[in-house]
């Protein structure tokens, strides 16, 4: 079983990747709109 620390790190990494994807997606939309 994964410890609480490992689970927390996995969640943080998942949120960071999601934020990166969202920022690149919104930047692409902004460039496409202009």
From TrEMBL:
<feature type="transmembrane region" description="Helical">
    <location>
        <begin position="12"/>
        <end position="33"/>
    </location>
</feature>
<protein>
    <recommendedName>
        <fullName>Stressosome-associated protein Prli42</fullName>
    </recommendedName>
</protein>
<keyword id="KW-1133">Transmembrane helix</keyword>
<keyword id="KW-0472">Membrane</keyword>
<keyword id="KW-0812">Transmembrane</keyword>
<dbReference type="InterPro" id="IPR049722">
    <property type="entry name" value="Prli42-like"/>
</dbReference>
């Amino acid at each position: 079983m994964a410890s609480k620390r490992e689970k927390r790190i996995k969640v943080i990494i998942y949120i960071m990747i999601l934020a990166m994807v969202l920022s690149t997606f919104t930047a692409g939309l902004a460039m496409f709109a202009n």
